[in-house]
Amino acid sequence: MSNKIRKSGSLLALAAVMGGSAGAQAAVEIYNQNGTAFSADGYFNAFYVNRDDKVDDVRNSDVKMGFLPNTIGFNFSKKVGDLTLGGRSSFWSTINDSLQSPTDTSIDVRQLYATVDGAFGQVLIGKDFGLYARSNIFLDELLMGFGSPGAATGVSFGNIRTGYPYPNPSAQITYRSPDLGGLNIAAGIFEPANTTGVGSEQSLPRFEAEVTYSVDVEGLALTGWLNGRHQSSENATTEIDSKGVGYGLKAAVAGFSLTASGFKSEGDVPVLISDSVLASEDDADGYLLQGSYSLGANRFVVSYGETDSEQGDFDTENTSFAVFHDVNSNFKLVAEYNLFEQKTKSSDVTVVDTDTLAVGAIVTF
């Protein structure tokens, strides 16, 4: 399978290729003959979680998945003349609903797309993660950790809404350039969100783009990125322009790594974009600072992030300390301590204040 297809396909593979903390996603090759290849990859994890909720004055113990759900993916490629046709389908499943749905579970498809590769680059058609905030999250040092409390279902949010928004898996047609000496350019059209309600129109698609540049300067590995999004939704009385820009820089040398990223947006709640009515084009911004050190099979991480949202009426801050230990290339142990706080901006009332200890294991293939 071409490296380019796998880079655009698997979240974990992309993070590994771009220098992220996820580690290599070693897909199992099932078939490879006469220019046609088929492979499968998997990601499985579980954490013991002990959380002290200071607002409600309760402490709970749980067994949950981490920030990344348990996933199995299937990849194919076929060489046809000067083109390579490829595709990926991945299924993401939670283990957090084991008592609510004892013999069932929530499964979603975040990637279901085909790719066409050639000398011109790559065109992707189907459903995949977005480009806005893509590298912000994929290069998060805690991608394979637990992170901040999230949805009511118990899903953890990592640093979503404490440093970056989520790059929603969306229907899209996206072009990626060939590698231009470390420079990579991606741009696409996406299904737009209805943010103005009944009787609305979105006369143009959502536009997203990302530029990344990687270079090695005498052992100092640098990766920088800039991404953005724009869309518009309107009805007879209201027009909401939603736009955002994300950015970041990662530097790594001799086992040390420093990452700084951020975003600024208008006309959306900085968690994810969806069909939800917005009252205004109020803005939001956030940043994430991280440092890590790798020593042998161990990686130590410290992380701090904030988001300030007028639209969502919240301020958040998130501090994490984590240790990742590689038992081998397919088996990882994780220990993380997370402190998260959220306030309502309009009232300055603390609505969430939690300290969380998460200890888990991850198996990949």
TrEMBL record:
Residues of the signal peptide: 1-26
Keyword Flavoprotein: no
SUPFAM superfamilies: Porins
Membrane topology reported for the UniProt record: Multi-pass membrane protein
Keywords: Membrane, Signal
One annotated Gene Ontology cellular component of this protein: cell outer membrane
GO MF term list: porin activity
Keyword Ribosomal protein: no
Porin domain boundaries: 13-344
Highest rank taxon of the organism: Bacteria
Protein name according to UniProt: Porin domain-containing protein
